Amino acid sequence: MWYIVLVAAVVSVAKAQVFGALGCPTVKPQASFDLQKYLGDWYEIYKFKANFENGQKCAHANYLLKDDGHIRVNNSGKTADGKMVQALGDLYMPDSTKPSSLKVKFASAAPYGNYVVIDTDYTNYTLIYSCTSILGISHFEFAWILGRQRTMDQALVDRLFAELKSYNVNVGHFMKEDQTGC
Ligand SMILES: *[C@@H]1O[C@H](CO)[C@@H](O)[C@H](O)[C@H]1NC(C)=O
Ligand SMILES: *[C@@H]1O[C@H](CO)[C@@H](O)[C@H](O)[C@H]1NC(C)=O
Description:
This protein has 182 residues and is of the alpha+beta class. Helices cover 17% and strands 41% of the residues. Strands 2-3-4-5-6-7-8-9 form an eight-stranded antiparallel β-barrel. The chain is globular, with a radius of gyration of 16 Å. The relative contact order is 0.23. The structure holds 2-acetamido-2-deoxy-beta-D-glucopyranose (2 copies). One 2-acetamido-2-deoxy-beta-D-glucopyranose binds next to strand 4 and strand 5.
């Protein structure tokens, strides 16, 4: 019975997310991480395809420190018919000895997902990777490149693509976010 439930769960995420064979690739989180410097506004420059954001443009995130030390994430974007939509989430650092390995969730009933900061300079860009292994035989993954502005130098984009690729992540899944006419 649990097997049927698992297969159903896997099939439903498979339709929404990028799927890969085997377990998660081993990526190297950034060695140090300063949550304070990470707060504020970020614009989505590239992302792996994700159903929950489909059809939106101008994706923007605001990270705000809460009293409990967690971060309130406000993801917003514009739908095809120009409507502003938002999703509020919770981001936190479960283990201070692994400061760049964060956890995030958007629905109160949903489990926390991985949010690994692979590389950020806080003032221009952040490269985020999220992977969930399914019994080590399969995995689903997301990646995002966010910037402090709606545009990013191509040289920087190329460097971040190369960095993720060095961990055997297929950067062919990246899609450019439309940040025009916002
Ligand atoms: C989330 O961000 C959007 C866009 O900036 C803003 O319109 C909305 O008021 C924000 N929501 C909250 C709860 O702050
Ligand atoms: C990052 O931002 C700083 C300050 O905003 C700027 O001086 C620098 O040139 C930027 N670096 C890159 C690689 O974009």
